[in-house]
Design goal:
21 helices; alpha+beta; 2 domains
Length: about 525
């Protein structure tokens, strides 16, 4: 891409390379620290991770529990990792971490093909330290895979348009499409944008040889998408209505013009564009301003390829949201696959704004350099601050930390004091309607149990034949506070056990769940432990 004369002279090539290297190192370090600190699983991770317990590969084609929907190949990849390395925090996040590291260096390659000078530096620095990029590199959800798939497809597309007579990149793109769509739903938006970019490039160049590759690309894209729809039919049919209700704020109100206008402003100034620090409404305003400036630059310079590659996936995503098939905005994770686009555009637009600010009122190049280093200082502070925050608070919430600490204490020690049986995971008993399907912290309890109970981790059943007068059995009943429990059914179950065993004790543990900051109490769950000995 062309760059402004000011951009070319702000930093020397040597200083540019050193600064880029420092931010890449900071990005690797921030991702590694967060991953190896082994944060306790939080509820959103547990909702999906629970589905790897006791399921095989074909079982993951069925509707998932806890209102979860995820690409089939992604689920299979996660299940494979769990089978190889066990069900634990590091294994569940290994795929995301690997994708996060690969994405960092792949973005450096992609940005280097599109930008140079200050624009390149701002883009790479932002991508290295932005909170969404750090967070989803250590979270057991598909968003990190979405990012890597998006980067691979975009990099191959840019590689081709820089040498359009070499169609190998197009054929590689075509071959990768089934895998890409199988592990990432959002890959279809990126692929749609690439298709339009390729068609525009071929039309302008008059090269007929590339059209065969483009036709093959679209045939494979349509076929892969159709296969994906069929594979995900059970999941989507089971959860579509629930998802529409849950994500209603992430669908544009197309029938109400004034509400639609405010929706657009709210979405594009909030969490979706919260780079580098994330946040709520207003925190993405500066990023949005830089992106608008970049779009103006692309139009003025007639850089239509990058314009289409950046905006067509957004447009396709918006169409899907208008049809209420895939939510848009309201949270960074929903458009995280567009992080490379955001960072490239912010780098381009941010450089133009810096240079303009540096030149006002007779300013010199030195003022622009000062502003640049001030911005880089902010980015470095965000990255180092993220590391310090994670070291000081290695958890998402204190409630998650307390839930894991209890599991580490209870399940390990309990095995030395007799048999311990979980009513839910061992006996399949539930005394609350909706407990098996609706969202609650029951899934956090069950995932922590799977990790920190030696017997559950081994997948062994309880040994009730070993219960005696000296070796008791403890039945553990977790009660999610948000559900109405059938006390009569529980009482009948207790009477059945009393007919066989002697009840010698009962304990109750409270599990208060607070929202972030420990200021708002969400709910109090309870764990009841009934101790029996043989009669």
């Amino acid at each position: 891409m062309d760059v402004t004369p000011w951009d070319e002279g702000l930093l020397s090539e040597e200083r540019l390379r050193k600064t880029l290297r420092l931010f890449l190192i900071l990005g690797v370090l921030a991702r590694a620290v967060r991953y190896f600190l082994r944060f306790p699983l939080w509820e959103d991770e547990c909702f999906l991770a629970f589905n790897y317990i006791g399921r095989g590969y074909t079982d993951l084609l069925d509707p998932l529990q806890a209102h979860q929907v995820a690409p089939v190949l992604y689920l299979w990849a996660q299940l494979t990792v769990v089978k190889l390395f066990g069900f634990n925090e590091l294994a569940l996040r290994l795929l995301a971490f690997s994708c996060g590291l690969a994405s960092l260096f792949l973005f450096r390659n992609l940005a280097g093909r599109l930008l140079r000078g200050t624009s390149l530096l701002i883009a790479v620095a932002l991508f290295s330290v932005a909170y969404p990029c750090l967070r989803y590199a250590a979270e057991a959800k598909p968003y990190g895979v979405d990012l890597l798939v998006s980067l691979v497809l975009m990099t191959l597309a840019v590689s081709w348009w820089q040498q359009p007579r070499r169609t190998r990149s197009l054929w590689v793109l075509t071959a990768l499409l089934p895998l890409a769509l199988g592990v990432s739903y959002t890959a279809v938006f990126v692929a749609g944008g690439i298709s339009l970019v390729v068609a525009y490039t071929l039309w302008c160049s008059g090269d007929r040889r590339g059209w065969w590759a483009w036709i093959a690309f679209n045939v494979v894209l349509c076929g892969s998408f159709a296969a994906l729809v069929l594979l995900a039919a059970n999941q989507s049919a089971a959860e579509l209505d629930w998802m529409r209700a849950y994500w209603h704020k992430a669908f544009p109100p197309v029938t109400r013009p004034l509400a639609l206008l405010w929706w657009v402003v709210e979405v594009h100034s909030g969490k979706m564009l919260g780079y580098p620090v994330g946040g709520a409404v207003g925190t993405g305003s500066l990023a949005f301003l830089c992106i608008v400036a970049a779009i103006v630059i692309l139009v003025r310079r007639k850089q239509w390829k990058l314009f289409l590659l950046a905006l067509v996936p957004m447009a396709l995503h918006l169409v899907a949201a208008a049809l209420q098939r895939y939510p848009y905005g309201m949270h960074a994770k929903l458009t995280f696959y567009l992080a490379p686009v955001y960072c490239v555009l912010i780098g381009l637009g941010g450089t133009a704004i810096l240079c303009r600010l540096g030149s006002v009122r007779g300013g010199t190049r030195g003022r622009a350099i000062v502003l640049l280093f001030a911005l880089l200082g902010v980015y470095a502070l965000v990255g180092s601050g993220s590391i310090a925050r994670d070291l000081w608070h290695p958890h998402k919430t204190k409630s998650d930390l307390r839930a894991r600490a209890f599991a580490q204490w209870f399940w390990f020690n309990a095995q030395f004091e007799g048999e311990v049986v979980c009513l839910k995971s061992d006996l399949g008993l539930s005394f609350a309607e909706g407990e098996d399907t609706e969202l609650s912290w029951l899934y956090t309890y069950l995932c922590n149990q799977r990790i920190y109970s030696p017997r559950h981790a081994r997948g062994e059943p309880p040994r009730l034949d070993r219960v005696s007068r000296t070796r008791p059995v403890r039945f553990v009943h977790y009660q999610a506070g948000r559900f109405q429990h059938d006390r009569d059914a529980l009482a009948r179950w207790l009477e059945e056990k009393k007919a066989r065993y002697e009840l010698v004790g009962r304990e109750r543990y409270a599990f208060p769940r607070y929202w972030k900051g420990e200021k708002t109490l969400e709910v109090v769950d309870h764990l009841d432990v009934y101790t029996f000995t043989a009669k």
